[in-house]
Amino acid sequence: MRIGFALPQFGPLAHHPEDIARFARQAEELGADSLWVGDRLLAPVDPIVGYAGTDVIPSEFRAALDPFAVLATAAAATERVGLGTDVINAPWYPPALLARSLTTVDLLSAGRLLVGLGTGWSPEEYEAVDVPMAERGRRLDECLDALDAWWTRNPVEYRGDHWAVPASHVDLKPASRPRPPVYLAAFAPAAMRRVARRADGWLPIVVVPAGSGAPDPIAALAERLPGVREAVEREGRDPAAFDTILRVNPSADASVEDIATALVRAEREAGVQHAFVDLIYLGKDADQALDLVQRVLERARAS
């Protein structure tokens, strides 16, 4: 299994951006296979929708670094690891701006970019970027079309209901050919149909350890993945070419054993070949986060 880790982007780690390059370089030296960013804009004081089914926003989201700047820093500090977004909230961005940023990171990393896109869940963040949240699904579909045009054609032109790119010469294309792989995060039925129809892969999430009385997340993932691949095949696509990258979200009381066990079980029981661990609730500084990287890799690969 390829095992990656989130870059120091949120919470206490965000207050020390000078550590991003060192974290990325040393995580690669320790054997990490990929490094990841997310996309948080703000933490509402009185949220309309809380995080992960709660009615609050974690305090860690009150400090968030720009994902593209963090990825560019990691790209310059590393040579081998994949660099992923899980996820960029695509409807927030005009596709031309998003394409330029993603292309830049892919070129800086010599083709190591893994593009993960989603729609987000916070009404306040949509208000802050002046995009109607009700349009998020349609805007994501248009974004996918516009990105494909930007990356594979020259001149580039795209016309949609929400976004447009006038006929333009765009000579810089990604190092990845014909384009970087595009993954989608989804859970709802309509969003999962989009995954099957349009994505190169799916970005599921498991929380460890599972809360008291909660279903076993790895067992649930193993049960769901065959259906996802069947949906891909129904769309006339090759399920063998469809990828899954699992995000493991440890809670604040998770142990290294909890995390490693989830990784090992995801590979053995669900066939997951690539996963990454988000340390947002566990890493208080870069040294502590790197210590966790080393211990998780040692424990998971010893199993």
From TrEMBL:
<feature type="domain" description="Luciferase-like">
    <location>
        <begin position="16"/>
        <end position="265"/>
    </location>
</feature>
<keyword id="KW-0285">Flavoprotein</keyword>
<dbReference type="GO" id="GO:0008726">
    <property type="term" value="F:alkanesulfonate monooxygenase activity"/>
</dbReference>
<dbReference type="InterPro" id="IPR019921">
    <property type="entry name" value="Lucif-like_OxRdtase_Rv2161c"/>
</dbReference>
<keyword id="KW-0503">Monooxygenase</keyword>
<dbReference type="GO" id="GO:0016740">
    <property type="term" value="F:transferase activity"/>
</dbReference>
<keyword id="KW-0808">Transferase</keyword>
<protein>
    <submittedName>
        <fullName>Hydride transferase</fullName>
    </submittedName>
</protein>
<dbReference type="InterPro" id="IPR011251">
    <property type="entry name" value="Luciferase-like_dom"/>
</dbReference>
<dbReference type="InterPro" id="IPR036661">
    <property type="entry name" value="Luciferase-like_sf"/>
</dbReference>
<dbReference type="Pfam" id="PF00296">
    <property type="entry name" value="Bac_luciferase"/>
</dbReference>
<keyword id="KW-0288">FMN</keyword>
<dbReference type="GO" id="GO:0046306">
    <property type="term" value="P:alkanesulfonate catabolic process"/>
</dbReference>
<dbReference type="InterPro" id="IPR050172">
    <property type="entry name" value="SsuD_RutA_monooxygenase"/>
</dbReference>
<keyword id="KW-0560">Oxidoreductase</keyword>
